[in-house]
Design brief:
The complex is a heterodimer of chains A (355) and B (326).
Chain A: E1 4-15, E2 18-30, E3 35-39, H1 46-53, E4 61-70, E5 73-74, H2 80-84, E6 91-94, H3 98-101, H4 108-117, H5 124-137, H6 143-147, H7 156-168, E7 174-178, H8 186-203, E8 206-211, H9 214-220, E9 223-228, E10 231-237, H10 238-243, H11 248-255, H12 295-299, E11 305-306, E12 311-312, H13 315-325
Parallel strand pairs in A: 3-8, 3-9, 6-7, 7-8
Antiparallel strand pairs in A: 1-2, 1-4, 4-5, 9-10, 10-12, 11-12
Chain B: H1 2-29, H2 33-37, H3 44-53, H4 60-72, H5 86-121, H6 126-140, H7 143-157, E1 170-172, E2 176-178, H8 183-216, H9 219-226, H10 231-268, H11 274-283, H12 287-315
Antiparallel strand pairs in B: 1-2
Helix pairs in contact in B: 1-12, 5-6, 5-8, 5-10, 5-12, 6-8, 7-8, 7-10, 8-10, 9-10, 10-11, 10-12, 11-12
Classes of the chains: A alpha/beta (355), B mainly alpha (326).
Chain lengths: 355, 326
């Protein structure tokens, strides 16, 4: 049973220039307790995806089509009032900058207790005990004192711990962490990531990690989904993505990591920049920056193919698979993204399901 | 806290010294006091003697020191018109002005906060657009025009509120003359306090709206939504508290404007307060009364601003009044 199932999600922004697509045909699923990551440059639509799941996309964005199912409940059809009982209770969020996420004029305790009280029938005293228990879980020293303090009295790392504690208050099914360590010191980053991972493990909470940093992703996520210009271009087990990236964009991202360059050498970078919503190129959106771009990349959209370990949308990979399968019997499957990987070791092309 | 208060008291003293210098200059230098005291028939020699006697030939510094010494004792001179100590005349009128200002402030708070919040939450609704329209008119039309219109409609056309005076008053605590205790007094308070409130309300509605819209964009509000809190709690606890921080500062500064507007309002509605008295004092060139008014209003202004700073410290936890040491 899937915990979360997102199918063909399309999110658009209604702007003066027209109705622009920010997310196109996003499909993925998440099992209970699983940790997945979304990576890509800024503008890829990772954060929009995070907010879409809890139906909090800022105007003028809206969900155009597609479904978001938590257990078997369709979230995209829920009213704001119904959605309120999902947010914070079933799906919690962690934001990028802990300095900005907590309300400066309310104490840590107030901000924790209010979340408990708005989702449960607990009394204030019980809520306080629960909050302190969670503060202990995220390794906050002297939680009783911290409870009555204001955010400005805490350091950045400590605030992010408090925010993780808030996300954990009602033991949600899923935590969506949008760049949770980007605004933090490098030394604290590792601590927070470790904490996040451990917290999710201990409580059997699924994690959706949104990051631009493959280094961060590799520490935490079991599965990685690479996004480019509003589409998923590659997804698979994190190890495979990092050791054997298929899509040229993923390869570019990996090459751009500082560890991949020799000392004294210029850092590798992907030339050009992410296209904006306004001028998304035809065909494969990456073709303008892709070192292997062919003519057909400019016209058609590559199919989402399964090569045995990862799902990739790239003509180059498609050609390669075709060559390999020229004589072999090719079997077509529905596009089940959560394919049991062990059973299909031979290379099988997959087509987009038409359901 | 003590440190803060100590600093404020020092500041207040400096401000009061500056105000007293201005008052002193008004009292002694606005025209020739001797000329005002004696008739045509008095000889030049007698005038010179009188001048000497009054100390008007002393140096300015000496004269100011004398003035300041008297002022500390509460003696700000004798009103020419009332033939009574000027300070007493003024203090008798203080309750009327304070009650008027207090009612106006209550009206401003009670009306402009909900209006500003609604305009910020639903910027595209018809109500918000109407609020913005009327507040820009309110900002640009002078208070005496608004007051005259109020009198025209409420007193002349509909005859539901009296247009002048304080009506029935009662002395409480043996010194405070209040209009709050009787229906007639409250009725008389209605128009003056409303027009005084209308003078400042548009500014606050617009200020609260723009401040709140900015706050609603902040990360901590997004986080509050993500926590699944109720809209009421997000708007009125999370957003409003942050919205009010800068508003409190502006309110402190606007306290001065409020005092200035009481002069106009009291004159229009014949409200027997300090402002009305001040207006009369100017037309009678009653210089001791003018300078006494300046001193009293200056003191009130200093006290208000200190209070505002204290309130700001209470609302904003990042301002720690006590952390500066005791």
């Amino acid at each position: 049973m899937e915990l979360l199932n997102v199918h063909n999600l399309n999110v658009n922004f209604q702007l003066k220039q027209g109705d622009l697509a920010a997310l196109i045909d996003i499909s993925f699923s998440l099992k209970k307790g699983e940790r997945i990551a979304f990576v890509g440059e800024s503008g890829a639509g990772k954060s929009i995806l995070g907010f879409s799941i809890v139906n909090l996309i800022s105007k003028p964005g809206y969900i155009k089509s597609g479904s978001i199912k938590l257990h078997d409940n369709e979230l995209s059809h829920l009213s704001n009032r119904q959605m309120r009982h999902i947010r914070g209770k079933r799906i919690a969020m962690i934001f990028q900058d802990p300095m900005m996420t907590l309300n400066p004029v309310l104490t840590i305790g107030e901000q924790m207790v209010e979340a408990i009280l708005s989702h449960t029938d607990l009394r204030k005293k019980e809520a306080k005990n629960l909050a302190i228990e969670k503060l202990v879980q995220v390794h906050i020293a002297s939680p009783e004192n911290r409870f009555d303090q204001y955010p400005h009295e805490l350091s950045g790392g400590m605030r992010q711990r408090v925010i993780i504690a808030i996300a954990l208050l009602l033991t949600p099914d899923i935590i969506i962490a949008d760049e949770p360590t980007t605004a933090l010191d490098v030394t604290i980053q590792a601590e927070i990531l470790e904490l996040l991972k451990q917290i999710c493990d201990d409580n059997n909470v699924a994690l959706i990690l949104i990051s631009h940093d493959l280094g961060v992703v590799s520490r935490v996520a079991e599965r990685t989904i690479v996004m480019y210009a509003g589409r998923i271009v590659e997804q698979g087990p994190t190890l495979e993505i990092i050791n054997d990236p298929q899509h040229p964009y993923t390869q570019g991202l990996l090459n751009a990591l500082p560890q991949m360059s020799l000392p004294g050498q210029r850092l590798n970078q992907i030339s050009g920049s992410m296209p904006s919503l306004l001028d998304r190129p035809s065909g494969c959106a990456f073709h303008e920056r892709c070192p292997y771009a062919m003519d057909k990349c400019k016209q058609g959209l590559p199919e989402f193919l399964f090569n045995g370990v990862s799902h990739v949308a790239c003509f180059m990979v498609e050609d390669m698979l075709e060559d390999l399968n020229n004589d072999a019997d090719s079997t077509y499957f529905d596009n089940e993204l959560d394919e049991d990987l062990d059973t299909s070791l031979e290379i099988q092309p997959q087509t987009r399901g038409s359901k | 806290m003590l440190h803060f208060l100590f600093r404020r008291v020092i500041q207040a003293i400096i401000v009061m010294v500056v105000i007293s210098i201005i008052s002193f200059l008004v009292q002694g230098r606005l025209g020739d006091p001797v000329q005002q005291m004696v008739g045509q028939s008095v000889s030049l020699e007698d005038r010179e003697n009188l001048r000497e006697e009054l100390g008007l030939n002393d140096s300015l510094v000496d004269q100011y020191m004398r003035f300041a010494k008297n002022a500390i004792k509460g003696d700000l001179g004798v009103s020419y018109y009332y033939k009574e100590p000027a300070l007493e005349v003024i203090l008798r009128k203080v309750p009327a002005t304070l009650e008027l200002s207090f009612s106006a402030i209550v009206l401003i708070i009670v009306i402009s906060i909900p209006c500003g919040v609604i305009a910020a939450i639903r910027p595209k609704s018809l109500l918000s657009k109407a609020l913005m329209f009327f507040s820009s008119i309110g900002l640009s039309v002078p208070i005496f025009i608004i007051a005259i219109f109020l009198v025209y409609f409420f007193s002349v056309e509909w005859q539901i509120a009296p247009s002048f005076g304080r009506g029935e008053t009662e002395v409480i605590f043996s010194f405070w003359e209040t209009g709050f205790t009787s229906w007639d007094g409250l009725q008389h308070l209605f128009l003056p306090s409303l027009s005084l409130a209308l003078a400042l309300m548009p500014l606050f509605v617009r200020l609260i709206r723009s401040e709140m819209m900015e706050v609603l964009q902040s990360e901590y509000i997004k986080f509050a939504w993500a926590k699944g809190l109720s809209p009421m709690r997000i708007y009125f606890v999370h957003a409003l508290k942050n919205t009010l921080l800068p508003i409190i500062t502006v309110a402190g500064i606007q306290a001065g404007t409020l005092v200035a507007y009481t002069i106009l309002t009291e004159t229009i509605f014949q409200w027997p307060g300090m402002g009305f008295l001040f207006w009369d004092a100017i037309s009678r060139v009653d210089t001791p009364l003018i300078s006494a008014y300046l001193m009293v209003v200056g003191a009130m202004f200093v006290i208000t601003n200190t209070l505002v700073d204290l309130i700001y410290g209470l609302v904003n936890p990042t301002v720690r009044l006590s952390s500066h040491g005791l």
